[in-house]
Amino acid sequence: MKIIDYMYVIENINNICTKDEWHVEMYDTDNKEETYDKRIIWEEIKKIKELTDIKEKNIQYKRKYLNNILFMRQKLPLNTGIVRRINSKYNYGYRIYILDSQEIRMNEILRQTLEAEYDTGHTIDIGTRQFEFFNIEDFIHQIELYEKYCLEKKLEIKNNIYTIVIDPELTGLIVHELVGHNFEFDIWSESQYLQDILICGKKITNEKVSIVDNPKLYNGYGSYEYDDEGNNSFKTYLIKKGIVSDFLRSAEYTYAGYKSCNARRVSATEIALVRMSNTYMLPGTDSVDSIIEQVKEGIFFKGSGNCVHSQVTEIYPREAYLILEGKVIGALPSGKFYITLLDFFNKITGISKEYKLYGGGLGGCGKNNQWPLEIGSGGPYLRINELYCNFEKKGKNRNVV
């Protein structure tokens, strides 16, 4: 299989760059040492009828993208006393696969990303693959709420074990780190610990928990029609109604009865690895209000800041609020909480019917020195019992998945 990789219009628009930079590679899996003249590649590309209007489509997409940036800059308040930087990135192009049968398959690649970065190191981001951002007004609202929270007088609280409530952004981060990576079959097959816990057909958690990896998600930041081995994409249930259902696979890790569609690479010259696409938890039946109302004393965490993934994973949310007798009563200092794989499976006591999906960020998922890979994440609000929370001051953190 040959891959014509990253025929991209690449934009880094911190200063609203308008120059188009075209990057084209060709990779032949049968002859990795062979190099290709770009002029030859362009001649091959011209033969593909679907690509004749690529520059015109790019102009159309980019105009809408720049209008979104202008709208956001007009709406965001200035001089709040908080240092804020808006970063942005735009990629457009096609990734083309010429299979051994000479059949041509392609993924249209459109990535639009905005990120608000603060001197604390925290970031808030949004991303999409379509003409418009899915909800730029909501993105602006997130920024305004975070800055309001930063200016509020904060309550004091002791480090202790608390029941916590987390928002969909944090749910997505935890699902990505604790579930997604551990369900990548190459990682699972190298860990006896995971093999003893994650067994297909075994009930592992609350029957209300279902988690999927879905490259066919409409407008998902990690969506694609074909993986980097040319396979048709499909949705994979990792956990279905509390039961381990399947794993993420590439051709190297598939066998009779199982298909693969999760072979991905960040560049044509890299090895395709088992990677996530859009990984998220499906909604439950509780309301957000009822989830909070059942907490006598606890913490409401919002927004993903940083994550240090290990056997005991440290999660640094952007915001923290105190819950007393079922009511959110005020802001807390920035903090962190600790969670393990078994904590996540055993301590979930509430899953909301409200949920959101996220994608974007100027970073992405990293694995085996391949970074950043575009992924999506998200899910419902969750109530999780008995996690240790720490509110000591910390240094700068960037969002790393």
Q: Which labels suit this protein?
A:
5-stranded antiparallel sheet, 5-stranded mixed barrel, single chain, 20 strands, 401 residues, alpha+beta, 37% strand, disordered C terminus
- Could you describe the largest sheet, including whether it forms a barrel? 5 strands, antiparallel
Level of helix content?
10-25%
Number of helices: 8
Question: Order of SSEs, N→C?
Answer: EEHHEEEHEHHHEEEEEEHEEEEHEEEE
The span between the termini is 30 Å
Strands of the widest sheet, in order across it, are 2-1-3-4-5
Could you list the spans in which at least 5 consecutive residues all have pLDDT below 50? Answer: 6-21, 395-401
Mean pLDDT, nearest integer? Answer: 85
- Supply Rg: 22 Å
Query: Overall 3D geometry?
Result: globular
Structural class: alpha+beta
> What's the β-strand tally?
20
Concise synopsis of the structure shown:
By secondary structure, the chain is an alpha+beta fold. The chain has helices spanning 38-46, 54-75, 136-151, 168-180, 185-189, 192-197, 288-293, 341-346; strands at residues 2-12, 21-28, 84-98, 104-118, 123-128, 160-166, 211-213, 236-240, 243-244, 263-264, 273-274, 278-281, 297-308, 313-324, 327-331, 336-339, 348-359, 365-367, 370-373, 376-390.
Topology:
Layout: E1 2-12, E2 21-28, H1 38-46, H2 54-75, E3 84-98, E4 104-118, E5 123-128, H3 136-151, E6 160-166, H4 168-180, H5 185-189, H6 192-197, E7 211-213, E8 236-240, E9 243-244, E10 263-264, E11 273-274, E12 278-281, H7 288-293, E13 297-308, E14 313-324, E15 327-331, E16 336-339, H8 341-346, E17 348-359, E18 365-367, E19 370-373, E20 376-390
Parallel strand pairs: 6-13, 12-20
Antiparallel strand pairs: 1-2, 1-3, 3-4, 4-5, 6-20, 7-8, 7-12, 8-9, 10-11, 13-14, 14-15, 14-16, 16-20, 17-20, 18-19
